[in-house]
Design a protein that fits this description.
By secondary structure, the chain is an alpha/beta fold. It has one domain: TIM Barrel. The strands form two sheets. Strands 1-2-3-6-7-8-9-10 form an eight-stranded mixed beta sheet. It has a two-stranded antiparallel sheet with strand order 4-5. α4 packs across α6.
Length: 237
């Protein structure tokens, strides 16, 4: 009986430690978004970049005490990723409906098929050492309102965040101002594109009111082929 009790206590302690170890960013951290450049010269507290760069970049950042947020799309296929064929052969691809970047929308209502694919990405992110993940294209009702409703996007975004937390990774809400207040309880921070331009920053105050950071990303097209970040900073203090 004593042995069983000890094992139970040990298991409970280990589980508690795992749950407590998930990074929860606070307002005040400096932030950068890498679309290119030298990782060794970046001095911000939090650095965001594509998941495929994580394995190489994270050891450098962690050695300097920085946190890493890894990017992938949740609602579309993504050309060039190692799991692209798995996504395209999943039966989730909506033909003829894209995101404007050469990727197809996915049937986000088919959780049974989509969640295992997204979970694999979270597991890979955790393996590489990503402290957080930025999951893009959650608001598919904006891209294909004939098929998806705002509620469909809410349900999708919610279980994406919950799946990330099950894999012990912090998850950031990307855009979706119309659902920010409802989704705040499920996300750890937010990354918002050009909210000043569209007068949408106000919708994310629910995050800062709960001591969760909101980061503004402003990008523009350069010669129609390259993207350049011209401003990234914490907003809504």
């Amino acid at each position: 009986m004593k042995f069983l009790l000890s094992v139970t206590l040990l298991a409970s302690t280990l589980l508690a430690n795992v749950n407590a170890s998930r990074w929860k960013p606070k307002p005040g951290l400096t932030w950068d978004y890498i679309l290119g450049g030298n990782t060794k010269t970046i001095d911000k507290d939090v650095v965001t970049f594509d998941l495929e760069y994580a394995e190489k970049m994270i050891p450098i950042l962690h050695k300097k005490g920085q946190k890493a947020v890894c990017y992938f799309s949740g609602g579309t296929t993504e050309k060039g990723r190692p799991d692209d064929a798995e996504y395209r052969n999943s039966g989730l691809v909506i033909k003829g409906k894209g995101d404007g970047w050469g990727n197809n929308l996915l049937d986000i209502k088919n959780k049974k098929k989509l969640q295992p694919l997204i979970r694999k990405r979270f597991k890979r992110a955790y393996k590489y050492g990503c402290d957080g993940v930025e999951v893009d294209v959650l608001g598919l009702y904006n891209h294909y309102p004939e098929k998806f409703t705002k509620e469909d996007s809410f349900v999708f975004a919610k279980w994406v965040a919950e799946t990330g937390h099950e894999e012990n990774i912090s998850v950031g809400l990307k855009n979706l101002p119309s659902l920010a207040e409802r989704l705040e309880p499920y996300f750890d921070f937010a990354i918002v594109e050009s909210c000043v331009d569209y007068n949408e920053c106000k919708y994310f105050r629910t995050f800062t009111s709960k001591n969760k950071p909101v980061y503004l990303l402003y990008i523009y097209l350069l010669f129609n082929t390259k993207m350049k970040v011209i401003g990234n900073f914490q907003v809504l203090n």
